[in-house]
Amino acid sequence: MDIVQGQLELVKKHWPDLLNQDNKIESSNMMIHAIIKELSELSDGYACFPWSKSKEIDREYLLEEITDILHFVLELYIIWGVTNIEEVEELYFKKRNKNIDRGKIHMTKSN
Question: What is the pTM of this model?
Fold first, then answer.
């Protein structure tokens, strides 16, 4: 079982309303707000401000928060019908390549 299938199984068991096609926007908004909250918690987990006195980083805490973010990102994929890791990877690499091409264009324009 891959992580998308694992998350889909969890959603079906505990939050089946997320799969209701009539609630896509509402469900997406819930996931986006959860991601924002987790990003805030991630930011709080290390000294992200130059004026912060503490320079210690709790790696375990940061990885836990990153995993929480992944949890909600996976649920967004599932809400929009992406239910296997191959499609996530396909979407990722398509966007990655587009970003690389944009970078090349930007580099050309700035030269």
Answer: 0.83
